[in-house]
Amino acid sequence: MSRAMKDRLIWAVTFLVMLIICLPGLWVVLSAFRTNGEILTKPAVWIPQNLTLDNFRAIFGLGENVLAIPVGSYFLNSLVISVTSTVLAVVIGMSGGYAFARHRFPGKSGAFLWLMLSRTVPGIALSLPLFILWSWIGLIDTKLGVIVVYTAINVPFTVWLTEGFFRQVPRDLSEAAQIDGCTPWQAFWKVEFPLARSGIASAGIFAFLTSWNEYALASQLTRSTDSKTLPVGLMDFTAQFTIDWAGMCAMAVIIIIPALILTFLVQKHLIAGLTFGGVKG
Amino acid sequence: MTRFRRYARDHAVPLALLSPAVLVILLVVLLPLLFSFYTSFSNYRLIRPDSLWDWVGFRNYARVLGDGDFWSAFGRTVLFLTVALNLEMLLGLGLALMVNRITWGQRTMRTIMMFPMMFSPILVGFQFKYLFNDTIGLVNNALQSLGLASEPIPFLVDRWLAFAAISFAEIWMSTSIFAILILAGLFAMPKDPIEAARVDGCSNWQVFRHITLPFLMPFIYIAMTIRSLDVARAYDIVDVMTGGGPAGRTELLWTLIARTAYDDARMGRANAMAYFSILLSIFFTWFFFRKLMAARRHLGAF
Amino acid sequence: MAEVTLRKIVKSYGALEVVHGIDLDIAHNEFVVLVGPSGCGKSTTLRMIAGLEEVSGGEIAIGGRVVNTLPPRARNISMVFQNYALYPHMTVRENLGFSLKIAGRPPAEIDKATDEAAAILGLADYMDRTPGELSGGQRQRVAMGRAIVRHPDVFLFDEPLSNLDAKLRTQMRVEIKKLHQKVKTTIVYVTHDQVEAMTLADRIVIMKDGHIVQTGTPLEVFERPANTFVATFIGSPPMNLVDGVVAGGAVRFAGDVSLPVPPAFRGRVQEGQRVTYGFRADNLMPAGHAMTGIGETAEIDLTIALAEPLGAETILLSELAGVEIQGKMYNPRPVAAGERLSCLLALDHAHLFDAETGASLRT
């Protein structure tokens, strides 16, 4: 086989894989604009006859048919919980990551390993004691309760990512700044932070996505519209007697859009962060 | 005590910087785990709060170990992880190598490759529940429209088909992590050793086997480590796709824990099971972390 | 006035002591170079003066004020780092003006000071570029500019030229020397390169294993090395060293060769004492190709193993008592390997060291 033929073949196979990656998502998006009637028709209707925004209207209570599921509240809950826990996780992670990147202390590698291992605890296993403890102290079914938990599960990752980025900033820059008259605190904010900023931003977006997408813990720790997040809300649809496929698809689109935008914003930094965090020890 | 004091004084700054991270993890992970460790030795049921003080020793563990449902869920989980991780790694490696060779449209392909990473596992589960549905699913519709199947195939009902469907969803979701990190490794790879090997008379396969692959190993292990940190998120997928059913045919360790704890309200026994799942996760992470360290040392020369 | 005084300075990391009680007085406006092989404690000492490393013991004073516990910003020093440590997210102008901005000076004053520094170092054309857009030499200049902008009491240089190529290094060496003449300031300069030390220093401090081995002007340490370490570390090629025994006003080597005790050492050695005889290649010259006015000489016949013509002179490799030695032929003629030459050794420039300790027997 000639080289050009081989290249073309590889391209075709890759394209096919990409199609498999894209197709399910696209199908869901398409279904979000169709009516349930069309989705349920047998034999299948392949070409959509009429596209509609009714599903979205229903979700936000704007159309004639109002949905029983308060997606608007869920969206707001998700937003508040994800943003707050992300900010906390980034601040805490930055502090810890800086300690790991810049300071030497006995027990450092052990501490790092334990931090990472704390992330391995399956959400469902962690949800059992948290469910009980949180009900005792009144954090169950509150946004605060979920925020605290999400902060903790994001900290290991933000520590890891920021540590990698701070290590990329040469140590002598901070020293030069201190000789130039900065306090260590000023040296951090004026020199090291701006240089690690893109990395810190991607750590933040990673944390946001984790919080935004989390289900196992939230499904046990939230109960009502006060605190339920979008992924938990999605399951509301299946609890009904007949599944509202089109409604679910519309909600899926709502969940995926913020994640989509954020991921594209940081894809480059994200890979860099994960890679040199691991390869260069 | 004095030793601890001296340690605290000598390393006051890093300790202060680390303390928020340690504190929040103590509060949200370690403390609850200690509590659940205790309850795993009690007969705690959610509906009878005073049963928390009902100490039963190792009875929960004995029951769990003697429970056929637990062992089949455990075995299914290990099988599921083994199949999924291996296929994800192989497919990711293949995909990365292909994308690395492509020049036309490579950036777009790379971006598309990241697509599944941003999906919430619950969405992935829903997406494939929808696709594999026996009456309205895309797959069944397509098979029937093309005349490949006359009857709807019960993807989410049959024992093995459901296992395959869940594995497919899991692999769809996680292959891209491998592909992306391995591709980053390919981009970072120095050209000299490859050229030197070609001059030394290596075939394409030999170059891949002896130069490219060893260089990629740390990247593969990073992906494995990141992946194994979060193996349990398959719970979300299964929960939405089949809920462990029908009749426990797709029960994984994690769905079994949830059912025991919340549906049967047997917290004590669920916590005993949870410790098995924690050990499983730690084992996977530790295993790949060790490999990563070894591969890194091995690569010191690069 | 900014003299720098080190009193019994000790640095240890846990149980490991790396600097063992150094004493050093640096005068106002003096250019002092700390030189030594890597790991000798010179950089650590400099960083202790800067305040970047804690002092484990002893006292550091700048301008009469003890600074042991002061943070770097309170010491009024500036430092040029080995890797320049330019702030990559700032332009050259911002880099230069950073210290003044931190000090809260008015913008007009900052502009004036940065323009001044830029003029001194020829940076005026690059003011709006970032460090990433500069060449190695330009970055070096910016690093120096950043140091001079704030008129510090003391300049610290930490191997500033080691990342430059040979040609640029020579060029920047000259600029640093000129800079010192322009902005009279106390300078402490660390390097492992003895040529840099010789050319730049008012006074050289040679360090080894956390101790100061010798302090003196470049010529002093070159002509009167305190021990064999300094003798081989300073000067290129390194001093020839041959072990022997004092016997009747001469030093006898293996193979029945002997050389007279150099004049400066007569009366300082005893019969039968084991010594190391040292002389530089510059002072071992084939007869007829020597410098004139070299005082008392001794004659030895040498078989040439290898000749390295450098143009103005030729380095000759030979062997004395089983030890490889080097000589120099001035106004050279071609020399073939194996040729036997009668050579003159200028005894005024020869040295004797204790064979055991390596210390000079001059005092």
Automatic annotation (TrEMBL), chain A:
The keyword Repeat does not apply. InterPro entries: BP-dep_ABC_trans_perm, MetI-like, MetI-like_sf. Keywords: Cell membrane, Membrane, Transmembrane, Transmembrane helix, Transport. Its main location: membrane. SUPFAM superfamilies: MetI-like. Pfam families: BPD_transp_1. Residues 75-266 form the ABC transmembrane type-1 domain. One of its GO terms (cellular component) is plasma membrane. GO terms for biological process: transmembrane transport. The keyword Transmembrane applies. It is a multi-pass membrane protein. It is found in: Cell membrane. The chain crosses the membrane at residues 9-30, 74-100, 112-137, 143-161, 245-266. This is Carbohydrate ABC transporter permease. It comes from Stappia taiwanensis. The lineage of its organism: Bacteria, Pseudomonadati, Pseudomonadota, Alphaproteobacteria, Hyphomicrobiales.
UniProtKB/TrEMBL annotation, chain B:
Its main location: membrane. SUPFAM superfamilies: MalF N-terminal region-like, MetI-like. Residues 74-288 form the ABC transmembrane type-1 domain. Keywords: Cell membrane, Membrane, Transmembrane, Transmembrane helix, Transport. It is a multi-pass membrane protein. GO terms for cellular component: plasma membrane. Gene3D superfamilies: MetI-like. It is found in: Cell membrane. Belongs to the binding-protein-dependent transport system permease family. This is Sugar ABC transporter permease. It comes from Stappia taiwanensis.
TrEMBL record, chain C:
GO terms for cellular component: ATP-binding cassette (ABC) transporter complex, substrate-binding subunit-containing. Keywords: ATP-binding, Nucleotide-binding, Transport. It is a peripheral membrane protein. InterPro entries: AAA+_ATPase (IPR003593), ABC_transporter-like_ATP-bd (IPR003439), ABC_transporter-like_CS (IPR017871), ABC_transpr_MalK-like (IPR015855), ABC_transpr_MalK/UgpC-like (IPR047641), Mo/tungstate-bd_C_term_dom (IPR008995), NA-bd_OB-fold (IPR012340), OB_MalK-like (IPR040582). Belongs to the ABC transporter superfamily. PANTHER family: MALTODEXTRIN IMPORT ATP-BINDING PROTEIN MSMX, OSMOPROTECTIVE COMPOUNDS UPTAKE ATP-BINDING PROTEIN GGTA. This is sn-glycerol-3-phosphate ABC transporter ATP-binding protein UgpC. The lineage of its organism: Bacteria, Pseudomonadati, Pseudomonadota, Alphaproteobacteria, Hyphomicrobiales.
